Amino acid sequence: MQYDRTDARILEIVQKNNRLTSEVIGEMAGLSATACQRRLKRLRSEGIIEADVSIVSPKAVGRSIQMLVLVSLERERADIIDKFKKAIKSSAEVVNGFYVTGDADFVLYITARSMEDYEQFTRRFFYENPNIKGFKTMVIVDRVKASFAIPIELPAED
Fold it and tell me: Shortest CA distance to 114 belongs to which of 65, 67, 69?
């Protein structure tokens, strides 16, 4: 997966606002709308752009409780890890999940309507899973930044 300086500019633009038209993005990147559309299509097909999403306020949709949860598994076996990854992907409450190094095996970002709902989730998701050694919950007091923007490295000029 390679990209050039023009692609890098397009990536910077769409990370800030993916609702801009190809005409506007092209103008900002110094391209025609058609050339911009072609580049966006290639960036998506090559997996450089993974998704076009909107960041929704959890509180605005009734999910005012947010947590970061550190999860430790009983054993680190490929089948157990894969099964837990699948459970993460299929859970609506888990907004983001990361397989990590360090004291925990996974870090999850979870939202809930209330602490009672979160308790029910923990019973289903953690306590009923015999492969989970333990988990630690950190309740988020304030979401300071919400973004998926990645700093874009400019490729070397040829």
Answer: 65
Pairing between strand 65-73 and 94-99? unpaired
For residue 1, pLDDT over 70 is answered with yes
Q: Is 82 left (phi over 0), alpha (psi -120 to 50) or beta?
A: alpha
Q: What is the pTM of this model?
A: 0.86
Question: Does residue 121 have a pLDDT over 70?
Answer: yes
| Phi, psi (degrees; rounded to nearest 5) at 142 | -150, 130
Closest CA to 33 of 23, 42, 41: 23
CB 105 within 8 A of CB 131: no
pLDDT one-digit tens code per residue, 103-116: 999 999 999 999 99
Sign of the torsion formed by the C-alpha atoms of 87, 141, 17 and 48: negative
Identify the bridge partners of residue 66 per DSSP, sorted by sequence position: 111
**What are the backbone dihedrals phi and psi of residue 68, each rounded to the nearest 5 degrees, phi first?**
-105, 130
